[in-house]
Amino acid sequence: MAQEEFDKLLQFFKVLGNESRLKILGLLANDERSVGELAKLLEVKEPTVSHHLAMMKELGLVDVRAEGNERIYRLENKFLETMSKDIFSQDNLATLIDNKAENAWEQKVLQTFTENGRITAIPSRYKKRQVILNWLVEKFEQDRRYTEAELSEMLQKYHPDYAALRRYFIETGLMAREKGIYWRL
Amino acid sequence: MTPNQKQALLQFFKAVGQPERAKMLGLAASRPHTVIELAELLGLREMDALNQVTKLQKAGLIIENRNEVVPTYQLDTAALAQLQQDILETVISEEEEV
After folding, report:
1. DSSP state, residue A89
2. Cβ contacts (< 8 Å) between A93 and chain B: which residues?
3. Is B47 on the interface with A (CB under 8 A)?
């Protein structure tokens, strides 16, 4: 998600993360209201309500029209509906973060634990080790069967403890083994 | 909307109206993460990451998986669905409030 979009969404959260504004939202959901009416219903002063409404208007949550001396506010139903559908879905929440952040972390792990294409140390932390193992398994062909000797020989190019790597491949389900033959899953 | 639903919505917006927590929720929505991962991805100290995770957890947005070697945190999709329903109810509600 772009910074601009993120900021806008964050602003939306901030605006609605306030009890009075959420109440205004509830009130306007029922009917359009003047500032005076809202102030009375919420038991706060009119300028306070106006301030809240201004924030909500800026986000396009509410719309206003003049009627005589009064300003009548109403809810922008469509906007809120779209927002609620957009925000409260898992996929959309996931876009709150830039995928690059994730990749950056993996890159950092790879940088830390590999040098000149070799593994300098097998990470003891599971998640980091997983990054290394995912990287390593890519060195092997997808539809090929490897004998244990072949696999060990190849693994040894990357790190002396080939037996540990071999075991990790099986444990994490990156490879399967049967009768001394290994293959990628 | 019942007071409880309203409270849940308020909690949600308060919880995610802060950049780090919003990002954290985004990460938790993509897949389960450990606190260490969250800290690294967001450039936070582990203690701070843990505090923020705890807030999201208290707001009922994140669930903790204790079955793993290291606990991981992920989005509570059921809670999210409930919130979505609540806010839609607000929009189409016919009842008088207050």
Report:
1. S
2. 25-26, 29, 75, 80
3. no
Tell me the sheet residues that pair with A147: A181
CB atoms within 10 A of CB B68: 11
Which chain B positions have a beta carbon within 8 Å of A101's beta carbon?
A: 23, 27, 41-42
Identify from A16, A44, A131 which residue to disrupt to test chain B contact, counting B C-beta atoms within 10 A and taking the largest count: A16
Interface confidence (ipTM) of the complex = 0.75
Note the pLDDT of residue B48.
92
Per-residue tens of pLDDT for chain A, all 185 residues: 667 777 777 888 888 889 899 889 888 888 899 999 999 999 999 999 999 999 999 888 899 999 998 899 998 877 667 666 666 777 777 777 665 566 777 878 888 898 878 899 999 998 899 999 988 998 888 788 999 999 999 999 999 999 999 999 999 889 999 999 999 98
Using an 8 Å Cβ cutoff, are A162 and A139 in contact?
no
Which residues have C-beta within 8 Å of that of residue A68, sequence separation ≥ 6? Answer: none
CB A118 within 8 A of CB A157: yes
Q: Can you spell out the DSSP letters for A85-115?
A: HHHTSHHHHHTTS-HHHHHHHHHHHHHHHEE
Cα-based angle B41, B46, B48 (whole degrees, multiple of 5): 95
List chain B residues with CB under 8 Å of A97. Answer: 23, 26-27, 30, 41
